[in-house]
Structure formats: C-alpha cells, structure tokens
Amino acid sequence: MIPMVDLTAQYDDIRGEIEKGFSEVLDGAQFILGPNVQAFEQECAEYLGARHAVSCASGTDALHLALAAAGVGPGDEVITSPFTFIATAEAIRYVGATPVFVDIDPQSFNIDLELAARAITPRTRAIMPVHLFGQPVDAEACQALACEHNLLMIEDCAQSFGASWRGKQTGTFGIAGCFSFFPSKNLGGYGDGGLVCTESADIAEELRVLRNHGSRERYHHHVIGYNSRLDELQAVILRAKLKRIDRYNNERRRVARTYSEALAELPGITVPAETAGAHHVYHQYTLLLDGDRARVMEALKQAGSASAIYYPIPLHRQEVFLRDYAGVSLPVAESAAERCLSLPIYPELDPARQQTVIDALRTALN
Ligand SMILES: *Cc1c(COP(=O)(O)O)cnc(C)c1O
C-alpha cells in the first residue's frame, strides 16, 4: 500500500546522526530546555530569517502561546479560515477570543483577504492566516490589511515550514509565526513539538515565560503559565532534519510537479494552483474532483494507494461551532470540503510508486 506519508525512508537517511545525538542526550541526562533545544531555536531563527524563535510542546501550543503573548483575549475577534485543522480555532478559543471565519479563495484554499477586510469590526484584534497545504497566503497583502486596521497578524505556519512569499519565509510577516513539528509535517519530529518565531523581543520573552510555568527565574512565578516545552530528544531529530529541509521540500515539489503534469488533462480534476509569488512546499497535494469522490478513493485503494480528505468538514460546520455559525454559509470552503482529495506525497515517494497512483486515477476517471 502506498501511504499518504512514509516516515521510515527519511529515518534511514538520518539514523546515524540521530543515534549519536540521542546517546549524547542520554549520557548528559538533561532532557528539558537543554543545549539541543537552544541550538535548534537558534538554527530555526537563522533559517527563517527571524530575530527570535521560541520552541514549545506542539503547533497548537505555538498558536495558543502566541495569541496569549500578544495579549489577545476575551472580547477580541480573530479572523481566520474555516478550511483548516481545528487547532487554528481551538487556540483562539483557549485565550477566550472568538474565531471569525471568512471564506477562502478557490484557487489557493487560503483565506480570501477581501472577505477578511469586510469582516473587520471594532472588536477585531487579530488576523490569523493559515498557509494551507504549504502554500503561503499573499503575506504582504495580509500584512498591509493588518497594518491598515491596526490588527495583529499571527501566522499559522503548521503546514508551511520552508515556504516563502516573494523570497521571505512564512512566519516572518506577522507579529508571530507558529510552526508545528508533528511527525507528518514538512519538518516533523518523532513526537509533538512546536515553535513561534517573532521579531519582537517582548513577545519572545513572554513566550519563554509562558511555556515554562510563568517563570523567569526558577521557582519565581510572575503569571500563570503552562508546561509547554520541546524536549532534547525531539530537538536532536529536528536539528538533523532542519539541515535537510530544503532538499525535502524540493523533493515534495518534484512529486507535486509530476502529479500536476500527469493529471491536469484528466476530466473532472482541478490540480492545485500555485499563486505567483508563493513558494509552495506541498505539505499536501490536494486537488479538486468533480463527481463521485468515494468511488475514486475506492479505485485508488484497489490499486494500492491511500488517499485522504483534508478537510471533510469546514470549521463553521463542526459540531463545536454549529451554534455560533448556524445559518452562516461559506460556499467556497463548503464546496472545497466536498470536492477535495489529497494524494500521497513525501520527499521519498519514488517515480514508480507515484506512477501507480497516477495510473489508478487515469483509469478511474477515463
Ligand atoms: C498540525 C496543525 C496544527 C497543530 O499542530 P500540532 O503540532 O498538531 O498541535 C495547527 N494548524 C494547522 C493548520 C495544522 O495543520
């Protein structure tokens, strides 16, 4: 079976480096906020071109802590996309703010910034674009919108490590950029992890306090904080992968190009569009399908390939938000949820296996 993502192939390549790093950590017996975490944060900041990078326990926490550090709270509205993973909206709720979902652009699946502009009210405090599937939103336009209306821009970069908008990394346009190192993400650990990058020394300092029980100095607690730290073993893995992230992302782009060239002419398929100015890193390869999606997925399965639906239900239609969004229609997101289909993509997906996926789709659609 060809899986959506295969993490074993990548491990073979970095096994030696990871085992050596693990052995050093185990011998040194410093597991939390040690030298690997510090080095990883430094290396991330350099890679991203950000002044500060503060790691934490997950991408969800990165979003939560960034909102908290920026002072977003009860009574505030945060404009975001309904076509994303639930964590985007959960984080907004954690700080007591209200997510305001606006519809997406049908080409990029990212938040429609014109609709976002129209959703601004006196209570709007922040805008949280999601660089979905690894494709950056028009980050300069989003920045300009935030600037014009005095909003905080906090980027959900969980799927976009290494993606850039006109040569500048995602995460560096807003007041904070929030990354996830969940294993299947473009830069993934072997467990949970996250990171926030920021240009603001104040926000970086606040993040360091919040992630560590509200403490600047050991056993002195200034605020109620959290236990949200990256551990040394994850940092070892992430440091090894960070060195190779451009290669990994370029391989993803190669796989995506092969899919798009082979599938563009098939009836009933709309292959993903790359926005001019966006360096897309294809966390997912997600196309739109006319017709019977379940039948196509079954055909893929019969041919030995996984496929998946990211995402089947937009957030305004999730049970948890139904009461607040009853009667709200976001037709582009709803249509995308009904028609989207994601194919296997990972750096090590070899041409022969990819051809199996392509052939199965061809047979199913012709
Ligand atoms: C994965 C993901 C998150 C959450 O990251 P975790 O590390 O799993 O907590 C948030 N937003 C988006 C868009 C994601 O894909």
UniProtKB/TrEMBL annotation:
One GO-annotated biological process of the protein: polysaccharide biosynthetic process
Lineage of source species: Bacteria, Pseudomonadati, Pseudomonadota, Gammaproteobacteria, Chromatiales
Entries under CDD domains matching the protein: AHBA_syn (cd00616)
GO molecular function: pyridoxal phosphate binding; transaminase activity
InterPro entries: DegT/StrS_aminotransferase, PyrdxlP-dep_Trfase, PyrdxlP-dep_Trfase_major, PyrdxlP-dep_Trfase_small
UniProt family annotation: Belongs to the DegT/DnrJ/EryC1 family.
Record organism: Natronocella acetinitrilica
Catalytic machinery residues: K185 (proton acceptor)
Name assigned to this protein: dTDP-4-amino-4,6-dideoxygalactose transaminase
Record PTM N6-(pyridoxal phosphate)lysine, positions in chain: K185
Keywords, comma-separated and alphabetical: Pyridoxal phosphate
